[in-house]
Amino acid sequence: MTSDIDIITSHRIVPVVVLNDSQCAAGLADALVSGGLPIAEVTFRTDAAQKSIEIMSKRDDLLVGAGTVITARQVDLAVHAGARFIVSPGYNQEVVDESRAQGVPVLPGVVTGTEIMAALNDGVIVMKFFPAGTFGGPATVKALSAPFPQVSFIPTGGVNLDNLAEYLSLPCVPAVGGSWMVPAKMVDGGKFDAVRELTAAAVRAVSDLT
Ligand code: 3PG
């Protein structure tokens, strides 16, 4: 059976979206699906997040998760809204425990060896490396994977078309996260054709790698 994490690792990109208005959620969902990247990490940075997850998760051709989840309560809200995976900017045991209790995969954020060891100790093996660009980019991911060969990293933060290949060429990187194909201004402005084009370009960049 294909798991939701398999869906992420087969597409190799997780679009990280900030929705300021849930009225834009349906158009955004269309743009991602028609652009060929049917995944959305909807960040809990805005009041519109929960409602947007509710709207987007009604589609059965789109994998919707919640990002910027920092409390167990938010895990509960996100999952009840329809989120099928949880992403956190850091490692917090309550967030991991609640995600497991709710039966959804969780990708906690790490940067240092100490954080990786804490997450590993908790049985987590797929982690978000965040914020990737400002913490050394692909070189740091590569260096961290030497002592932690069992860990898969999903670098996020500063990833774009220019550095995508460098991250995805690392065996420890099954996928990256990023907002470059879903800029908040475009989403807020309802420019969904442009979002679809950027999404399709991201998908092409991944297929060019293989
Ligand atoms: C995130 O929350 O994962 C990041 O804000 C996404 O980073 P980016 O906007 O630099 O792609």
Any overview of this molecule?
The chain is globular. A four-stranded parallel sheet has the order 3-2-1-9. It has a three-stranded parallel sheet with strand order 6-7-8. It has a single domain, classed as Aldolase class I (TIM Barrel). It has helices at 4-11, 25-35, 49-56, 72-81, 93-102, 113-121, 137-145, 164-168, 184-188, 192-209, and strands at 13-17, 39-43, 63-67, 86-87, 106-107, 109-110, 126-129, 152-155, 176-178. By secondary structure, it is an alpha/beta fold. Bound molecules: 3-phosphoglyceric acid. 3-phosphoglyceric acid is lined by residues 16, 43, 67-68, 130, 156-159, 177-180. The site of 3-phosphoglyceric acid has 13 residues, from β9.
Defining traits:
globular; 3-stranded parallel beta sheet; 9 strands; 210 residues; binds 3-phosphoglyceric acid; 4-stranded parallel beta sheet; 10 helices; TIM Barrel
Brief synopsis:
This protein has ten helices and nine strands.
